[in-house]
Amino acid sequence: MLNVILVVVGLILLTVGIVWLIDKFVPKKLKPILNLVLWALIVFLGYITFMSVYGEIKFNKLKNERYDSVISKLKDIRDAELAHRTVTGEFNGNFDDLIKFIDTAEFTITQRKDSTIIDEELTRRFGGVETTRDIVVIDTLGFVPVRDSLFGADTRYKTMMNLPVGQPGAKFILKAGRLADNNIPVFEASVDKAIILFDQDENLVAKEKEVVSVDEVNGPTLKVGSMDEPYTKGNWPKNLSKD
């Protein structure tokens, strides 16, 4: 956008210069017509400059509003995936299975406490001198439904695969698996920025997909998790989300 503004400003200055030259050297009969045309050109170029700036401001405002809605959905997907890993040890790459898991699975509530017992092996080794060792005892206290723990009475998880804004009918892409080098479970939920901003200026969308900044969503997608590393956070900056 800066290049466009500089070009337009340069043209305006050039036009003003031409107006001055006309005023100085062109015959009086032609001056009114030429001046009118050139001043109209100056106004037109000024309008283009204003709209290029204002258009990007509007784009950024709408972009951030849509990103905020998408991030809320991605957080729900992340919470569901983390719960799935807690219970099963794996992430899930299928939304239908993930929803079924939320509807049926339970967290195990445990209590961890330290205790001391007699170490029979050491006691025998020391000729009957009573010897103890410390252990950790884990007691199961009960079970809590995953659905109640994550969403309470809210059923929004049933539609968490649907993009809340952007191209009608669009859905998130969900993947899950394990890293080849260390077998750590990973997942990734993502959506292309072009789908979120499908009805916006193509040049601004293309520029947005290439952005690299600490205060912006870097890259061509808005996503949470990663299929390349054990990472469960989103790629959005802190100014767009509290977590």
For this entry, give a set of tags:
alpha+beta, 243 residues, 3-stranded antiparallel beta sheet, elongated
What's the total number of strands?
Answer: 5
> What is the average per-residue confidence, as pLDDT, rounded to a whole number?
83
Helical proportion? 40-55%
Span between termini: 31 Å
Structural class, from secondary structure content?
alpha+beta
The domain tally reads 3
What global shape is seen? Answer: elongated
Description:
The chain is α+β, with helices and mostly antiparallel strands. Helices cover 47% and strands 19% of the residues. The protein has 7 helices and 5 strands. The radius of gyration is 31 Å and the shape is elongated. The mean pLDDT is 83.
Strands, helices and their partners?
Blueprint: H1 2-25, H2 31-88, H3 95-104, E1 106-118, H4 120-125, E2 132-145, H5 146-150, E3 173-178, E4 185-192, H6 193-196, H7 202-209, E5 221-225
Antiparallel strand pairs: 1-2, 3-4, 4-5
Helix pairs in contact: 1-2, 2-3
Overview in brief:
It contains 7 helices and 5 strands. The chain has 243 residues and is α+β, with helices and mostly antiparallel strands. The strands form 2 sheets. The chain has a 3-stranded antiparallel sheet.
